[in-house]
What does this fold into?
Amino acid sequence: MEEHKRRVRYKGTHPRKFSEKYKEHQPDKYKDDIEKIISKGKTPAGMHISIMVDEILDFLKIEPGETGYDATLGYGGHTEKMLECLKGKGHMYATDVDREESAKTKARLKEKGYGEEILTIKNMNFAEIDKVSDGEKFDFILADLGVSSMQIDNPERGFSYKIDGPLDLRLDQSSGVSAAERLAELSEDEIIGMLIENSDEPYAEEIASEIMKTYSSGGSIETTTDLRRIIEKALSHLPKKEREENIKKSCQRTFQALRIDVNSEFEVLYSFLEKLPSVMSDKGRVAVLTFHSGEDRLVKKAFKKYLREGVFSEISEEVIRPSGEECFRNPRAKSTKMRWAKK
It folds into this structure.
């Protein structure tokens, strides 16, 4: 018999550290508590709420027996809903570069009855979409380009400026360089270019200048707090009334720009879009969720090109956005844009 382990006790009435938030780490066990947090318009720490599920399923119209692909497995919320539509017939493929989270998701979905006979999960980048299924074409594809809440809320991953942690930002921590290492090797002009191209940062020059001053004076930028303080200093010239809000937005944009750079996200998306038509069946449908203008521009441009060339028979004319109610229940959905295409 396995020894019973008591959960870690914490000081005060509420857990402060991410690792202590035991309810959010076990949402199926504490459904009522999780629902209370969501009903207040907050996202439970460490828990990912799938975005635009109804809109995605309404478009994909998944039939039992079809073959599908979830390009970004994450917490598995979208994958599970798509599997439900298959009703035990057909097959789903899913990929994710985050080995730690995909292992947890695989175990979670297996417990719910979705084993390897209907679900194949691979630790690989969706840029390699042509190597996922050994030549089998996909009837439906979903690519949710957002970072999962498990990554954002875990301070060890360095995705949030709000929590102190190592400035890492890698989706796959087993390869590549961290954001701290990457930042240290860039020139001032390269930092400015990265901030403008990846996040349309209006204070790119001020932030880049402050970063270079830190390095030239012998300082280092190793943590999320280090970078946040640099941004605060760079924007200290702004009038007090507007300073706080501008610092918040510049932090969000700067961390986003760094994350995109460290993970080569635009290059990955470009490769995915380039290979997309070749892996879709004759009746293939694809839906893509983007979270900032750079991603959306790439998807829009590719879909329009394929429509002109006769590769796609139909594409969404305008972006589809989440409802106001969904944005209240899940604030992280606010910037979402969905585009779809049919072969």
Remarks:
- Residues 1-47 form one domain.
- The first strand starts at residue 67 and ends at 70.
